[in-house]
Amino acid sequence: MFIGKNLEITRRAFLRRSSQLAAVGAASSYAMGLAGMSEAAAFSSAGGYKALVCVFLYGGNDHANTLIPFDDANYARYLDIRGRSADGGIALSQSSLANTVLRAPQGQTLTDDMTLAIAPTMPRLAARYREGAMAPLLNVGPLVVPLTKQQYESGNNSSYPRPAKLFSHNDQQSTWQSSQPEGSVTGWGGRMGDLAQSSNTNSMFTAINASGNAVFLAGNEAQPYQLSGDTATTIRGLTKRVYGSNDVSGAINSLLTTHHGHMLQADHAQTLARSIEYADFINSALASANLSTDFGSGNGLAKQLRTVARLIAARGSLQVNRQVFFVSIGGFDHHDGLIGSHEALLGQVDSAMDAFYRATLEMGVADQVTTFTASDFGRTLSSNGDGSDHGWGSHHFIMGGGVNGGRFYGTAPKIAVDGPDDVGRGRLLPTTSVDEYSATLAKWFGVSPSEMPSISPNIGRFDNPDLGFMQAAT
């Protein structure tokens, strides 16, 4: 039944795109983009430019060594659970955190009077927090309904449903990105793209993936435009002779782009045709987008974010007002070797996100572009030796000029194993849902209240459709 439902959604989306293409005709070089216009009117009168950029940390980020208790009492609990790294444990030293403490503002008190520090390799994000451009969201994760520990442990999944296939990489990556486990055909970024297409002249550039395949940007109508490195994805055999023959190149072109009777083959051919047709156009736009911001070298995430920054700089040429982007970095599955490797990865995230923020300042769009992190899941507070295992709730960061930064959002979990926030070995039961996270971003982006359930399908079951970490839309 689930597969059939998803195929029906795909069929309807394909038929809508096909009928729209027929309506505008094939003469215009932008016909395929115009054919993707959304039926929803939520963005039809949206003014100005806005973009959301999802930074996905593949593998399940160890949140407990990303935001670490710094005050003496809570640090002692953390150290007791994780153990000193000098003795083979996975706790960071308290002294290493002195320069990256994130003080809560006056009037905000965290659980057990906790003071938190960000990882010592993330000094740039610490600085952005202090200047009010970055906000941490505490203990967020996929939830179907609000859950207490008692409800979770009751095993009554009909009254207290939980997300399917918890603690599984593929399923929880998909659940974070789409609200469904592996097999989902749309993500909440793509569903925002469905609504946003009508505000873009060239709607094929609404959702752009600078990383690789991910359900996050797939919509019922919007389909992600994928780039590879600094350029649009191209097929070399279509742009030059193959084996010295133009006929071979032409045959490959025909095979890849000819329409077929099977709907999925036809949709695939249409997607390839779009990529081929617009590669030169988008590469030309990228070539004209000059930025002086230094993104450094040897950092794959920074390279992806540099491409995103150049696309934003080219927004006039691309004729877009609303965009959703996806970038990623892997390597966070630290069942072992956590100390050293994890800090190095977080250092790459810190450098890349800060460079991207500086680029938005250079372009004068810092308050119009919001970057946020996500990951498969958090990890266990308890150590398995020299690493940690799959968990559930985690901590994440939101950054941009439109962020109400310099304070914490969500609820800080107690530093304890078998505590009120723990469903086993320090696996956090989320106190904030991904639906609340996505709805808050969607509201800032311009999604109307009536359309919000299409983005965040469980939002009606939660009390906080707006968590407050974004400034009011203007």
TrEMBL record:
Q: Which PROSITE patterns match?
A: TAT
One matching Pfam family is DUF1501
Would you say which domain of life the source belongs to? Answer: Bacteria
PANTHER family named among the record's database cross-references: BLL7424 PROTEIN (PTHR43737), DUF1501 DOMAIN-CONTAINING PROTEIN (PTHR43737:SF1)
The name under which this protein is listed is DUF1501 domain-containing protein
